[in-house]
TrEMBL record:
Pfam families: PNPOx_N. SUPFAM superfamilies: FMN-binding split barrel. It comes from Aneurinibacillus thermoaerophilus. Residues 10-113 form the Pyridoxamine 5'-phosphate oxidase N-terminal domain. This is Pyridoxamine 5'-phosphate oxidase. It comes from the Bacteria. Signal peptide: none annotated.
Length: 151
């Protein structure tokens, strides 16, 4: 597939990123300077140029972003893989109306690329399931996503 480069999300990606979704987040490790990759799911795109996400306030992700603002989200969608590069900033050290100590991060999108290798497509997108109390997980997910949407 030809590489597509844009400075913002397509309408399709915007729609997909308006609900909880599995994505891979790459930051730059403060300790080693190497890429640091994490799987996250509390992600919300309020508009085509911005993505918000929530992580545990004690996560090394927060420390990495405070040290180096460059981040990349890898999103599996529409039969492909998209690399969304941007600059992150801490929007809220502690999110309100959420029982856990979570930090909200805002990414200003600089570039969106289709990075799937030529002549292929994703047949089945990655899926995950919660391995703890499903009712508690559902309640927490709703609280976190609502806080991201109200930011």
């Amino acid at each position: 597939m030809a590489e597509v480069v844009a400075q913002s999300l397509s309408q399709e990606l915007l729609s997909l990123l308006q609900g909880e979704r599995f994505v891979m987040l790459s930051t730059i490790s403060k300790q080693s300077g190497a890429p640091y990759v994490s799987a996250i799911s509390w992600v919300y795109a309020p508009e085509v140029s911005t993505i918000l996400f929530a992580v545990n306030s004690k996560s090394v992700i927060v420390e990495n972003i405070q040290h180096n603002h460059l981040v990349t989200l890898s999103v599996f969608a529409e039969g492909s893989v998209y690399s969304i590069h941007g600059r992150a900033r801490i929007k809220a050290d502690r999110m309100e109306n959420v029982p856990l100590k979570l930090t909200m991060v805002e990414i200003t999108i600089e570039e969106v690329r289709d990075v799937m290798f030529y002549g292929s497509r994703i047949a089945i997108e990655p899926r995950y399931e919660k391995t703890y109390d499903t009712r508690a997980a559902e309640k927490l997910d709703k609280q976190v996503m609502q806080a991201l949407k109200n930011a």
